[in-house]
Amino acid sequence: MEIEMNSAILDGGTDETDFWADSPVVAFVNLRSGNLGGKQAIARLRNTPQVCQIFDLRAGGPVLVYDSMQDVPQSDLEKMGLEAIQHHPKLRILIGGGDGSIGWIIGLLEAAKIDFYLATFPLGTSNDLAYVLGWGRQVGSPKAFEKLMKRLHKATLLTVDRWSASVSLIAPQPSQGEQMVRPPEATESCQFFTNYFSLGFDGQIVEDFHSLREKQPALCVNRHLNKFWYVWYGIPQMNPEKLCKRLELEVDGRPVKIPRRAGSLILVNIPSYAAGMDLWGKRKSDDQEGCGDTRSAIDDGKLEIVCIDSPAHLALTRFGMMRADRIGQGKSVLIRVLGQSRIPVQVDGEPWGVEGGREIRVTLRSRVKVLAPTKTYSRYCSCFPAFLS
Description:
disordered C terminus, seven-stranded antiparallel β-sheet, 8 helices
């Protein structure tokens, strides 16, 4: 696999660090993720001496449920929010959940201007970021949990790009030689992502699944059942709307044609989509002209842009019988949504949507400091210099 990690690695190289040493560890756990293993995870973390605080990721926001630094009743703890976090120049954050949980917490910490290093243990359905960083696909047993905790004693510091997608009304096109400057207040909404951002049928599938989980959580109690529902909701999308008539695409200011058969347009930042698919892959002779470098990296300030025709195409891609269509690489992406109807969107596996007559500007927002195990890695982590033999 032709993927590499650039030199934007903390401390001037792939330095090792002990996650548990010299600074407080704050844990966030989503009780509803994947196999619903959050309760067991919280119980185990309470018995981990280095963990000073534990937050439960509830619908209303993170709720503090454990604090080894304060001797206060549980009822008083639960009234505290992120302001209770111990501020430290090298704060360690440990997130137990899926990709949506990770993105949510990163957003909250950035908004609170808290400096942190991030590690994760996978409790969600896809767990794409955890897999890419080498933490595995899931933590399903006490033994696996203890093994992951031990691996945190020797981790490598890396960075991963974080992107913003801002939505505004489609701007009138300037005359030749003119340059239009959009006022900041024109932005209607904004989302941030680390893994991927897509428009089309997969956004509708994600929306349908999350609607089911909200209405009937008893039907979404483990990863395998959750994946069944993704397949189930993919069946009505077998002949999706073709995006070439709904979207206009610009990459780094250059108009790019969307293939006629495209049913989903996907911007990927990491080499794992929907529980493990590397949609960018290796370059083929039939790729569009200007598709860019054959390599991708999670910290290079560039997104890889691909399209998928239908759920059937996606399934065949998963089994290696087909591949996603490469469109290009770029540091900024502009997507215009034509017409008046809403188009479904997913952001790191979470549902969103954009009304017609809008444009989406995707640009680099920040780089998040993350930790990856040094001596063990998944097939996606061979791109990291620290993992090469």
